[in-house]
Amino acid sequence: MKKLTLPLLLSSALFALACAETTPPAGTAITHVTVIDAVGGVRANHTVVFDGDEIVAVAPSDAKLPAAAETIDGSGKYLIPGLWDMHVHLTYDDRFTDSMPDMFLAHGITSVRDTGGLIPNLEPVIAKMRAPGARAPRVFFSGPLLDGEFVVYDGKSRPEIGTQNSTTAMAEANVAELKAAGVDFIKIYEMVSPEVFDALAKAGRDAGLPIAAHVPLSMLASEAGPAVDSMEHLRNVALDCAANAEELHQERLAILNGHTEGPGGDLRSRLHALQGSPAIAQYDEERCGRTIASLTSTIQVPTLRLNTLAMHPPFERTDWDTALAQAPASAREEWETLITGWRNNNALRDTTSAEFSLSLVGRMHAAGVPIGAGTDTPIGLSIPGYSLHTELERLVEAGLTPLEAIEAATIRPAEFFSLQDEMGTIEVGRRADLVLLDENPLDNIANTRTIAAVIARGKMVIE
Length: 463
Description:
six-stranded parallel sheet; disordered N terminus; 2 domains; 17 strands; TIM Barrel; single chain
């Protein structure tokens, strides 16, 4: 090979340097900001540069960085990763569906996990949210609730977001159909039999799909939990923490096996009403410790803001009226009627279940069970976006630190989808989903509400 002479080498170097100097600035730099995420911790006076949907630089602000096309002064502000809501229903209430994407973004939620909806209803919504240039959070969806012979959300007494799986063959076929439809995960619901649960879980695994689930009424949490990737609402865990769990479970099985007709929703409600409080009253610390130990590899999405409504009615917050004004008018009217009924019904103020939920999450967290943040939006007076911040407050009340609560809304959902190398932290190579705050969320988790700017998929959507 011909060797380059010294003049040629110098000429090549000078040409490369000239090209570098004439390369136009690109991307956006957020300068002099305090960066906070659950992996890197707190990094004061840093500059974060993103170009398109990628973070390209994270360094102290006095470091030499290439010039950016745009600059945002982050002095005195705090930058966290874009937040997730791990439990939403985009098509549960048509009145909210069109406005949800903007409502999520306005509150710093840049990714959502839809945990139940019929594919024909979801497809146009997902397509619109994923369209190039769409102003919407990233969206991951499961399709319908995979329920048992008696479907809870059957379109009669409740909105239709569930589907029947009365046999193992039906379960396998339904998962195959969902895989073909492009779902990101599957969601197993409460009325399935143990045999159908096992078939659904195996089919999901074989299809390479993560699995979310309620603990089926026919099973114990310690049986079902280890077979799935996330459990929702803490549902049916109290029974597996009761001293007389076996007795309660046999009573439950007898009722389930004796049910031959009637809505699944009514049967489920009957069982929860019959056994919920008695199970809590029979709480056994040693047994509950064993149950919790079985769940250390299963993300718990406790939806504490839903479970603690009796303790913390959202309509008693000082910012409730402002937040509710964002909701569609017809939904506001209906919710105001519900709230009036709530205020007049002392039975709805029983805090037994709420206190148990907070205590259980605290104990799970202390045992190393991973916790994820989700709201069940728009169910149970959950305002899209706004209510995720309430969930973070409840997680801190349960015993998580503010940084751990942020982890629950950033790292945990990314881990559910094995995306932790792409999302959830502020590092070079990660997706450009960012939230700029006016106040430090580590001083008070409620400061996640002090949003100055939101970047979603590399675009400034709120400023």
